[in-house]
Amino acid sequence: MGVIYDYFSAATDDEAAAVYDWPAGPICPPSGTEPKDSVEVKNIDPHVMMGTLEALLTGNRYEDITERPRHAATLRFGDDGGDGLFTITGEFTSALVSADDDRIHAVAHAWSETEEFWGHADPAELAELLRDLRDLAVRATQQRHQLYCWMSL
Q1: What domain of life does the UniProt record list for this protein's source (predicted)?
Q2: What is the pLDDT at residue 1?
Q3: Which three-class secondary structure state does DSSP give residue 57?
């Protein structure tokens, strides 16, 4: 088991925040509501691990990335710490959109070697995840949406 993170798109912060009350996040809406376009991952948090990924994609310093106001900013968080909803920056979304397959392959390999993965990450699996995230970012950009992260323990 582990922490589940669903990265998804929404038009506004308010629309994204509504997902917090859905039974199982963006893929399980209330009756009569469409699920959100999303990518589900385990154990890859929006703050540290995605900050490291953005640094690798852009060449920007991790410290500069994590100081941005919308970098993993909390929209909603449960009193018990079990569920949360966070923003993803436009800069990160743009970096994903502009990453071609060669760049994804190179970044996935470098990302797999970071300390956050404890040497247990498969670069091929990370490349597949990055392609899925890139495709989500492309669709979000085309719809003028932003990316968000829903977390559940």
Answers
A1: Bacteria
A2: 58
A3: helix
The sign one gets for the Cα dihedral 128, 103, 49, 47 is: negative
Distance CA 120, CA 115 (A): 10
Q: Give the residue from 146, 153, 152 showing the smallest Cα distance to 8.
A: 146
- At 60, the amino acid letter reads N
- Give how far the C-alpha of residue 65 lies from the chain's centroid of Cα atoms, to the nearest Å: 14
Residue spans per domain, the chain? 4-152
Residues facing 77 on adjacent strands? 84
Instruction: For residue 111, give Cα distances in angstroms to 52, 125, 127.
Output: 8, 11, 10
Checking if the pLDDT of 24 tops 90, the result is no
Is it true that domain 4-152 has CATH number 3.40.1760?
A: yes
